[in-house]
Amino acid sequence: MDETHNTISGGRFGAVVQARVAHVHAAPTVRDPQRQLRGMVGYFVNRVAELRLLEAASSRPGGPTIVVLTGMGGVGKTASALRWLTDIRDRYAGDHLFIDLRGQDPDASRSPTAVLDRFLRDLDVSPRDIPVDPERLPEHFRSLTAAQPVIVFLDNARTAAQVRPLIPGHPDSLVVVTSRHTLAGLTASHGAIRVPVKPLDEGDAAALLTAMTGHTTSAPELARACGGLPIALRVMGAQVAEQAHASLADAVSALDRRSGDGRSTTDWEVLSVPDDDISVRAVFDASYRPLPEDVRRLYRQLGLHPTPVVDVRAAACAGGLDPAATRRLLDALVRASLLETGPETGRYRMHDLVHAHAADQAAEASAAEREAAVDRIVGGYLERAVEADRVVSSRWRHGPAFADPIYSANPAYPDPGSALDALEADRENLVAAVRLAARTGRHAEAWQLCEALWGLFFMRRHFADWIETYTLGLRAAEQAGDPVAHARMQLHLGFAYFERNAGADDEAEARTGFTEALRRARRIGHARTTSSALESLGLLALRADEPALAARNFADAVDALDGVDHPRGRALLTHHLGRALALSGQDAPAVAQLERARAAFIAIPDPYNEARVLTSLGEAHLRANRPDEAATALSRALPHMRDNRVRHEQARILHLLGSARAGSGAIEAAGEAWLAAAELYEQLGDSRAGEVRAAVSALRSG
């Protein structure tokens, strides 16, 4: 038998195992968990609501929990996610993985296969052990992440399909996704919780600017100019901090340029940092470029819309589309976070800077595309204003837009109040449409829009809009070469000042408007406008307590209508003559005249003016010390004004009704009417509120 020697020589050695058969069990490799989440960088303000939603989402059982922060580019989704994860990451003992999916650029977007390959390598999987079959990669990833709760932060996802394979295995894990898209499919398939991230409000945006720059002066103004969008605030704050602008006020001036026609425009060069990759326009470009062409086209045409807010009908006009196709494209823009939707209003809104970007894209389209879109936008608003105004009242209107008999045969609204409410809801866009029409040389549409808005302005008392639009309408009528429209715009602009009645200047403007309208109407021989101008001068005389002069003007106005079929105009003048008679102390003739006016309005029918005549009858009875008859007439007038939300008339009726009740000894009823009148006057900013409250106090103290 050979001799065996168990010896080692020739150097220094560590532990030596001597065995005929050696079984060596290597201890498993212990690696440090991945900690890939970056910390918070820079400044962060508020986001209390978003952080509260995120915290509530993370405590839901039955995971893994998937949270999707959605919003437009540059709104602060990633910063909000990191701020939240900084607070809660210690709850997750496993790996913390992060990757930018680059979903804003479809050409550079990362595939789930590429991401899983990277994650597996980060988890120390040898390349030769990574499955070649892409379908097995998610299984392998889930197995490796099943032992402990992990965090997976997927920034800039484009689709739900990018996210699903990256969901880890442990049920208590957390997946945080940011996206400019809604990723509704992820909610449907995995119960993902969506947390919308919106621009900062003015206070928080100003606080961010102050934190970055140390400046407080003009911070709210710059915050508004940036629309609360964090990326824009960061750019402008960095420029002030680096002294590219001496102050926040200088930054506002640099950002808000004026075009040749006085419109505010956005200077995109200002909204970038030259030596960095921060550019607001680049953020929006990245959201716009991947869209299908039909979606891009509607986006451009919404940039031509005069405000950032549209409903489906307005968007359909802009795009020249039917409502169903329009909704599909609007939904695509919502999913891309280029539009927000308000389910309670049925309207869509673009961030101001997104709207400016869309307008820039429209400027690069063909002139034919732009002109056609503006034609449709202005024409659409004229159509909707006309169809509502035809329900508001039976007054005579000038202009071809009002000639279609379909408006009378098929009214768009069931009653005047509903029509006024519709105009009220669209008021901002309708006023902007007048501006757009005037600015782009669509003169006939501009003054006809004004004509259609008369009832809204008169009944709902929007004096600033009334005066602005009719000033534009007056110029437009002159440019259009329509002398009747010119006279009517002059007349109705004067009436805006008459109704506002804010002092001697308003009275002078009203008188000038009425006199000039009368001169123009007589020169062209337009009987209706001549009569209306004389009527308006009579109303000025009534207000000045000159009933005889008023009556002469009203009589001349009646004569001007000789041979003209205008029953409403004659009924109005009968009403005004009754008021003049009452003011001059001719009680019985006044009441008889007012009753004739009421009968005429019932015959037309014109319930609004019937209610106004009843108010004048109540006033006449009060003047003649007949409080019970006054209360009866006023009580009949009140329901129409209340039901149609004509608040200034409602307040006046309640004011008079309180006086009638007080006159008949119904003290409690008088106080109730006066208090209701005072509340309405206060809502309207009418100084008579103080007078009425003083009457209530006197009533109670007496």
Largest sheet: 5 strands, parallel
Number of discrete helical segments:
32
What's the total number of strands? 10
Shape: elongated
| Number of separate structural domains | 5
Extract low-pLDDT stretches.
1-27
Describe this structure in words.
With 702 residues, the chain is α/β, with parallel strands linked by helices. The chain folds into five domains: 48-196, 3-Layer(aba) Sandwich (Rossmann fold), CATH 3.40.50; 202-278; 283-365, Orthogonal Bundle (Arc Repressor Mutant, subunit A), CATH 1.10.10.10; 368-475, no CATH class; 607-702, Serine Threonine Protein Phosphatase 5, Tetratricopeptide repeat. Helices cover 60% and strands 6% of the residues. The protein contains 32 helices and ten strands. A five-stranded parallel beta sheet has the order 2-3-4-1-5. It has a three-stranded antiparallel beta sheet with strand order 8-10-9. β3, α5 and β4 (174-179) form a beta-alpha-beta unit. The protein starts with 47 loop residues before the first helix and ends with a helix.
Walk me through the topology.
Layout: H1 48-58, E1 65-70, H2 77-88, E2 96-100, H3 112-122, H4 137-144, E3 151-157, H5 160-163, E4 174-179, H6 184-190, E5 193-196, H7 202-213, H8 219-225, H9 230-241, H10 248-255, E6 256-258, E7 264-266, H11 280-288, H12 293-304, E8 309-311, H13 312-319, H14 323-335, E9 340-342, E10 347-349, H15 352-363, H16 367-392, H17 406-409, H18 416-425, H19 427-439, H20 443-460, H21 463-480, H22 483-500, H23 504-524, H24 527-543, H25 547-560, H26 567-583, H27 587-603, H28 607-623, H29 627-643, H30 647-663, H31 667-684, H32 688-701
Parallel strand pairs: 1-4, 1-5, 2-3, 3-4
Antiparallel strand pairs: 6-7, 8-10, 9-10
Helix pairs in contact: 1-2, 3-4, 7-8, 7-9, 8-10, 12-14, 12-15, 13-14, 13-16, 16-18, 16-19, 16-20, 19-20, 19-21, 20-21, 20-22, 21-22, 22-23, 22-24, 23-24, 24-25, 24-26, 25-26, 26-27, 26-28, 27-28, 28-29, 28-30, 29-30, 30-31, 31-32
